[in-house]
Amino acid sequence: MAVVSQSQRDPNGNYIFSSRPRPVETRSKFREPPSDQTPGTYGNIMYDRRVVRGNTYAQQIIPTMPLPDPVEVQRQHDNRRRAIARKRAREQLRTRTAEALQGRKHIDVQTEHYLEELSDVIVATDIECQTDAFLDRPATPLFIPAKSGKDVETQIEEGELFDFNREVQPVLEVLVGKTIEQCLLEVMEEEELACLRAQQRAFEELRNNELAEVLRLQEQERRHREEKERRIAQQKEVLKKEKEIAEKIAARAYTKQYFSDLLPAVFTSLRSHGYFYDPVEKDIETNFIPWLMVEVNNSLERRYTARHLLDNIIHDVVQKRLEMCKETK
């Protein structure tokens, strides 16, 4: 049997359940899925709007008030939007604090006389109301404490009260004595301080004299050290110059002795290599002898050519005579 559920609510707002029996349709043996969705088949109750979800123990309260008017809702929305726009415009027109420098930031500081907790500013409206004028308040009477206890009285004989001239004498003696003692202590302290200052002044003068003497001795020692270093440097310079002079004298003597034999040899070598020559001899060797050799060569060449021509002529004549002799035979 199939069950069709129906959910309803009672007058108290609770859900009630009721169903009626229905016959179950016949299905195949192997539970084949139907070809189409029929009204009699089961569906997914998770998507059924009639099934209530959530805590079923909580009482569902049905609102009894009617729905708000859409026009009124739109008007309230417009009013709220205009208030936000006016607030934003006031914030833009309000003078603001300058931007913080780089590396710093602004912090809200309470400047009132009494500290109070800062909270969000609530938008408030001013409403006026006519009231009666204030009546004059009467003056506050003086406070007189209530009387308590019992009144008593005492008999005071003559001389029992405080005699200032007689009672103040020991007090004055003590005060004057302490004052004089304090003054003497202060005077002694001043004299001791003066003695200490004098001793300190004398000690400072002695120390300054000793420091001046030490400085003078240091300066004298410095001058002696500089003089000694200067004398040593001068002596070293003199020794260096003497050594250089000795080396120069030895080098001059060696050079003179070496050049005594070198000079004739050099002149002889230069003369033998032709650096020192006779102009006539040089002219003969450079100009005349080459010209003479050229002329001799030319003359010998001409002579050789003439001999060669003569040999050819003689050879030709001999050949002709031999031919003639052969012909005559």
Automatic annotation (TrEMBL):
Residues 1-43 are annotated as: Disordered. Residues 207-245 form a coiled coil. This is Radial spoke head 3. Residues 22-34 have a biased composition (Basic and acidic residues). PANTHER family: FLAGELLAR RADIAL SPOKE PROTEIN 3, RADIAL SPOKE HEAD PROTEIN 3 HOMOLOG. Residues 1-17 have a biased composition (Polar residues). GO terms for cellular component: cilium. Keywords: Cell projection, Cilium, Coiled coil, Cytoplasm, Cytoskeleton, Flagellum, Phosphoprotein. Belongs to the flagellar radial spoke RSP3 family. It comes from the Eukaryota. The keyword Cytoplasm applies. Pfam families: Radial_spoke_3 (PF06098). Its main location: cytoplasm.
